[in-house]
Design goal:
362 residues, 5-stranded mixed beta sheet, 4-stranded antiparallel beta sheet, single chain, alpha+beta
Length: 362
């Protein structure tokens, strides 16, 4: 079973093979169109929809190995701090959560909402807010809809709660709050669900999975009607404000995610992506400035975390420290010897298939 989730804090999409309650996440995409991503929804392991929380946008694209191809913005919706998203592919409907209903709202005012609209490719038409009592939707975040039973689940970040109701057209009725084991070890800061963000129901096994922003964690439990038992935390090293979550059948050997084999090519490519993110934070880097060097060092640290199968301590293989890699990336071509020039060109292309076989001086 595969767990897809987004890390809100560092704007990455990850995937992990779930074995029991243990995961080994891998970066699936760090993309210029991911900006504090919140909700995700995946169709047939190929098409992904996601929301960007802070810039009030929604996108769709095609999953392909370690990236998102053809990212396109979805227009026509009403987006104010958008979070969870769900697509009804049979009826061409799209549902999404706005944590606030106005850009001027200051949380927590209890002004969140869930919307539905008609979806045609990348255009939403006829967006309308679902009818839900205000006291049941303070600060909605995650969203899951069982289109067979017409049950709609959502998490409420402000209320530290999860709820379920019956979806009927544009109304939600029979709303109930999910409850969980209250024993020590099954609660998070005295709350059964922490501060929940995303939610997913595995219908064949009657399991519920949810992400918690604080603490940064993913949890699972057995769900029966509105009660969750056997709550356990999913272990994994790369949770940083996890938000949207989606689960599909599959393994890490599937072609979609062969990036998780962590070859030298993919690892150096990941460093390029992370270092590029650092350069976007501060385009002009001064390598005599420790703060600037730390940006690149953090990029390398992130790469190391995601490339556990690569011996990154071998400086001859990766060209040395983060400082050296940073220097190579920003140096003029005329100042580089032929070996480091070759490394720089491969780094900038995100493809080290050739240069990884060479020995680079320390």
């Amino acid at each position: 079973m595969l767990v897809f989730f987004v890390n809100f804090n560092n704007s990455v999409l990850l995937v992990a093979e779930l074995v029991g309650i243990t995961t080994t996440p891998c970066v699936l995409a760090l993309n210029a169109y991911l900006h504090s991503p919140a909700g995700i929804f995946i169709v047939n392991n190929t098409t992904i929809y996601w929301t960007n929380f802070f810039n009030n946008t929604m996108y769709t694209g095609t999953l392909s190995q370690n990236t998102i191809l053809n990212p396109r913005q979805i227009t026509g919706g009403i987006f104010n701090l958008p979070n969870g998203v769900s697509v009804d592919t049979v009826n061409n409907k799209i549902y999404w959560v706005n944590q606030e209903t106005s850009a001027n709202d200051t949380p927590p005012l209890g002004t969140g909402a869930i919307y539905v609209g008609d979806l045609s490719d990348t255009v939403i038409s006829n967006p309308i807010e679902l009818s839900i009592p205000d006291d049941a939707i303070l600060g909605p975040s995650g969203l899951f809809i069982n289109y067979n039973t017409q049950k709609i689940y959502w998490t409420d970040f402000y209320a530290s709660a999860m709820l379920v109701g019956d979806l009927s057209g544009t109304s939600v009725t029979n709303i109930q709050v999910l409850t969980g084991d209250q024993t020590d070890g099954d609660t998070v800061f005295g709350l059964p669900f922490g501060f929940p963000t995303g939610v997913f129901i595995a219908q064949t096994t009657n399991e519920i999975y949810w992400t918690s922003y604080f603490p940064s964690a993913i949890y699972r439990g057995d769900i029966s009607d509105t009660f969750i038992s056997n709550i356990a935390q999913i272990t994994g090293p790369t949770f940083s404000g996890p938000n949207g979550i989606f689960i599909t059948e599959g393994t890490l050997s599937d072609p979609l995610i062969d990036v998780c084999d962590a070859t030298c090519e993919s690892c150096v490519g990941l460093f390029v992506q992370f270092s590029d993110l650092a350069r976007k934070q501060k385009p002009s880097l001064d390598l005599s400035n420790s703060d600037d060097v730390n940006l690149l060092s953090n990029a390398l640290d992130l790469t190391q975390a995601y490339c556990v199968k690569m011996d990154w301590n071998n400086s001859s293989q990766i060209g040395g420290s983060a400082r050296e890699l940073a220097a190579i990336l920003v140096a003029s071509d005329s100042d580089l010897d032929p070996i480091h020039f070759k490394l720089k060109q491969s780094l900038l292309k995100g493809n080290s298939r050739d240069c990884c076989t060479s020995d680079f001086p320390d």
